[in-house]
C-alpha cells in the first residue's frame, strides 16, 4: 500500500494561535484565526474546526475579511504574500506577492482594491512602515502586487499599535511614547507625545490603539495599565484626553464595540473589562479567563466577542459579558515541567496546562479533553510572584491512580506537596485521596509507579526520588474500620539512600521486581520486595541523566544515559556493561509495547533521533535533524490500530507513535505517509457539511447517502424523465375543473395507463431495483457498524479512514482489512 | 469558567483518640443513677416485654425496678440466705431464682409467694434459666451437677453430673427448646441436649468459666473466664474463632446489645469493654468505680445497668435525641415557600435544569477575593477564629504570603493590633505545623516595626516574650537532638552493619576536617 516512504516530522498541535487578531465572519457563524502557517476556521456555534486554510510558507500575521465580498478573506504572512481565500469552501482564490515580510494587514471598506500592510523599511533594521498595497484585478492565481505607497513611516511592528478611524478617514499609530494620526483627506499628520514616566512613576509606553467606529475618538493602552481616550486630535495643540485606570499591568489589547458605546480592554490579569460610555466609573468585568488576553475582537453584528489568550486558547463571549465557549487545543503552559505522560485510560497526552492545572490533550481531535485542577488555589496573575508549579505526574498502569507533585519556591524554603488522586468511576474524574506535605526535604527529581497490570491494587507502589539524597517508597494502607470515611490512604513504607548522593531518577523493571534508582554517578538496583540493594552500576565520569529498563525480550538490560555523552547498556544477569556508545542523549524513552527505545540527542544545535533495541548496540533507525529547536520531552502513545509499516526500518512505529514537545511547545510526531495522502485524509475529514460536529451518526448517514448517489445519478434522470413524459395526462386530470371532467370510469384507464411503464424502459427499472438492493446491503453494513457506536469519536474517524482506503485497495487486501476490523470489534465490545 | 477558589485550610490529623460512630453512640448516655443494694449484685436481668422492668439479685433479695424508678417497684425476699440469678421467662410473666441453700424458686411477677420450689441440688445454685420451650428450667449448682426441671410437676427430669467443679454460669438456646449450655470452674463449657443422656459438646476454655453467652443465631458461643473472652463456632464443632484479652482482671459478665452487633464484657478491673462482633476489636469502653459483677442492656440499648461488688447498682439512661430535631425545625422555611414547586411532578418530556448551588464564602475569602489583604488579615484575627481555629488564621497568612501582600497587610497597624499579632505569633510559633509561616510573619513584623521599637511598653514586652519563647524552643530542640544523637549511637552499636556505618562516619569526619583546613 504505502511504499517505503521516508519518515517525516509533522507538527500536530500547539501552534501559536495568537499571531493576529481573530476575525468573525459577517454572519458571526465562523471565527477565523491564524495558527502558525495556517488560518483556522472555527464554527462559533460548535467550536469545531471547520476548515484549515493552508498555503502560506511562513507565519501568518494578519487576517481580514474582504470588505467587498464578505465571504472572502485576506491573509498576509511573513513569506511576503497576501492570499485571498473563500473560507467557506476552503479554496485559495488568489495570491498577491508583495515581496516584503508582511507584519499586519488592514482591509478597509473605504479603500477600493487596496489593503494596508506593515512592512519593514528597506535597508533599515527594526523600522517599519505602513503602506497601502494595490491589489490588481487581473485574472490568474498568482499576481504580483508591487504597486504600493507609503502612508506612515516609523510605525510599530505590532498590529495592535495601528488602527483605522471612522470610515477610514484617519489612521492612528503609536510607537513608544508617540501617537501619530494621519488624515487621509487633508493629508495632515499630527503627532502627540507623552513623557516617558509620569509623576507617579507609571510607564507611559503605548501598547495598543483602537479607534471609535462612529466618533472621532482614539483609545490607547499603556504599559502601566492606563487607558487614554483622545479627542479633538485634528489640532496639534488643542487635543484633550481622559484617563481610565483599572489594569495593574500592561494593557494588552483594546477594542470598541460595534456602536462604540463600550470599550473592551484586556491585560495580563485575564480579566475582560467593559467600559461604558468612555467613563471611569461604570465598568463590567469578566474575570478568570485563564490566562493573559492577547487580542480582543468583536463580531460585526455585535453579539459576540472573542479573546485570544497567550496560552493558545480562544474564548467566545456573549455581548452581555457571559462566557460562552472556549476553543482550546494544546494549552501553552508557562513552563512544561511534567513532561509528556500518557493517560492509560483515555490515551490522552497529559502535561502542564493552565497554571496549576493538568491538561488532558486528545491527540486525535486536537482538543483538550479536560483540565484537572491540581493545585486548587486561586491563581494570582502578577509578575514576580512565586507560583505553585506542577512538576511531576505519574499514572498507575491502568490509570486508576494519579500521583502529582507540586512545588513552590519561596527564597529560603520550599513548599512541596505530593498528591494522590483516585479515579472515581461514578463521576468519571480524579478525586483527591491523599495529600502529603513535604514528602522530601528538597526537590523531587523523579517519581514512578510500579507498573503491574494483574495485581493492580495490592502491590501498587509509588517511588519518589529527591535531591535530599533519599528515595521513598509509598504504599496503600487499607483502613479496616468499616465506618471510616475513606478506606484507602497512602503512607511511606521505606526510605532508602546511597552514600548521601542525590537521587536523580527512578524506574521499575517491567515485572516490577527490581527498582533502579540513580544517585548522581551511580545506578543502584533494589529488590522491590525486600528493599535490599542488589547491585550498583556506574560509568564514570558523568552523572546519570536518565535510566530505563528494557522490555519484553530485552528485560535483562538496563539502559542509562550520562551527561558526559555516553549511552550505556548494562546486563542485569551478568552485572556487567554490555555496550556503550558515545551519544549526548537528552531524552531516553522506552516504548511500552515493544523492545524499542528512542533516544533523542542534542548536538550542535540540532536534535537527532536514534531508535535501538537494548540487545544490540546498532540503532534500528537514525533520524537526523528533527527540528531546529531543542526537544524537551518525548512520549510513545499506543496506537488504536496497529499501522502497517512498509519498511523494516520503521517497524518501531507499528504499535505506538512517538510524540515530542519542543522548546517552543509545539507538539510533533512522525508520519510515514506522504504529505498528499495525509492531506486528502484530513481534508475529507474536514469536509463535513454545515460545520456540524462529526458524530458517528452523521458519518454513517453521510456515507450512506454518498454510496446511493454514486450509483443512481444517471438512473434517476431516466426515471424522472419518464415521469415528466406522462405528466401531461396527470396534469390534465388534476387541473381540469371538476364539473367539466368526464366520468370517472372513463378517466380511470387513462390514468392507470399513464402510471404503467412501457416495455422498452423496463430495463432501466430493473437497474433501479438493483440500486435499491445495493442500498439495502449498505444498510446491512451500517447495521454491522452499530456495534461500533459505543466507540469514541476518534475511533470512528480512524475507522472511516480505513473505509476510505478500501476503495483504493484490491479485493484481497480489502478482505484482509475486514478481518482486521472484525478483530477490533471484539476488542471494543469488551471495552 | 472557573470561579473563585477559597483558601484551603490544611487539615491536620487530629491527635488522640479517634471519634468514631461508636464513641458517639456509647457516649450518648446521661450521667448514671446509683442505687445502693444490700450486697454484691450477682445478676441483672431485663424483662423481655415492655415496660422492660429489670430484676436485680443481690444478697437475699430480688428487687424489680421500673425503667426510671430509683426505688424497687417489687421485692421478692423469701430467701433465707443469698439468692442467685433471678431470670425472666420469654413472656416476662415468670421469674426463677436459685439460692444459697440449694433450692430453686419460681415466682409469678404479680404474686409474692413462690409458685413452685425445686429441691434437689445439694449445694448452692448459682445459675438457673428457662429453656426456649418455656416449660422447663435448667440449673447448675455447686454440687457439680446441671439439672433439668419440669415446671408443671416441679420434678427433676434429668441430672447431668459431668462437670468436675462448681457450675457457675449457663444459658439456653433461643432456637432449640432442648439445648442449654453451662460453664464451670473446671475450665469447660458443656453443651447439653435434653434428649441426650450426656453432654453433646465440651469446650475447653482454659480458665474457670465465669459467664457464657450464645448468639441469637445459636451459631456462636462466647465464654468468659480468667482474663479471656473467647468466641467459639458451635456449628464447626466448637472451634475457637477468636480469643480476646482486653481486660487485666477476671471477666465476670457478658452481654450482647440489642442489634447483636456489639458484645459487652464486664470485669473485676472496673471496665466494660464493647467489641464489634464483626471485627472483634474494642470499639469503646466504660469505666466504673468498683469491680463489676453483672451487666445488662435493655432492649434498644435504652439503659445500661451494671452491678458491682460493693452492692452499688449503676444505671445509665440514653439521652433523648431531641436536640437535632429542634435545630432542624429552626431552619425549616415557612410552609408556603417550602411547598412551592416541590409538589410539582416532572412530566416525561420536561427538561430538568438543575440549579447550581450557591457558594457561600467566608468573610476572609470575600475580602481576599476583592484583594483586600489587610482587612482579610483583620478578619482572621477576630477572637473566635484566632483562638479556636488558629489554622485558619495561619492559612490566610500563608495565602497572603503567596500573593506577596503579607508585608503590606502586616504594616500600618496600631499598638493594640501589633500586640495582638505578636501574642498570636508567640503562642503558635512553636507548633510545628505553623512554624514555617509564622517565622516569616515574625521576621516581617520585626522588620516593619523596628523603627518604632521603644515607643510602646506593651509592644516591647511582647517582643521580649517572643524572644523568650523562641529561645526556649531552641533549647528544647537542642535537647531533643542530643537525645537523638544518643539513640543513634545506641542503634549503631546494635546493628550488624557496624563496619560500614563506622566507615561512613570516618569519611564524614575526614571531609569535615578537610573543610576546616580549607577554612583556616
Helix-strand layout with pairing:
The complex is a heterodimer of chains A (831) and B (520).
Chain A: E1 8-13, E2 23-24, E3 30-35, E4 38-43, E5 49-53, E6 60-65, E7 72-77, E8 81-86, E9 91-97, E10 104-106, E11 114-120, E12 128-134, E13 142-144, E14 148-155, E15 162-164, E16 170-175, E17 178-183, E18 188-193, E19 206-211, E20 217-222, E21 226-231, E22 240-245, E23 251-256, E24 262-267, E25 272-276, E26 283-286, E27 293-298, E28 304-309, E29 313-318, E30 323-328, E31 341-342, E32 349-352, E33 357-362, E34 367-373, E35 389-395, E36 401-409, E37 414-424, E38 429-437, E39 444-449, E40 461-466, E41 471-478, E42 488-496, E43 503-508, E44 514-519, E45 522-527, E46 533-538, E47 544-549, E48 557-562, E49 566-571, E50 576-582, E51 585-590, E52 597-603, E53 606-612, E54 621-623, E55 631-638, E56 656-662, E57 667-671, H1 675-686, H2 696-711, H3 713-725, H4 727-735, H5 744-755, H6 762-786, H7 793-808, H8 811-829
Chain B: H1 21-26, E1 33-36, E2 41-46, E3 54-58, E4 61-65, E5 74-76, E6 83-88, E7 94-99, E8 104-108, E9 114-118, E10 125-130, E11 136-141, E12 146-150, E13 155-160, E14 167-172, E15 179-184, E16 188-193, E17 199-204, E18 209-214, E19 220-225, E20 228-233, E21 239-244, E22 251-256, E23 262-267, E24 271-276, E25 282-287, E26 292-297, E27 303-308, E28 312-317, H2 323-331, H3 335-339, H4 363-369, H5 373-380, H6 383-388, H7 390-403, H8 406-410, H9 415-428, H10 435-449, H11 457-494, H12 498-519
Antiparallel strand pairs in B: 1-28, 2-3, 3-4, 4-5, 6-7, 7-8, 8-9, 10-11, 11-12, 12-13, 14-15, 15-16, 16-17, 18-19, 19-20, 20-21, 22-23, 23-24, 24-25, 26-27, 27-28
Helix pairs in contact in B: 4-5, 5-7, 9-10, 9-11
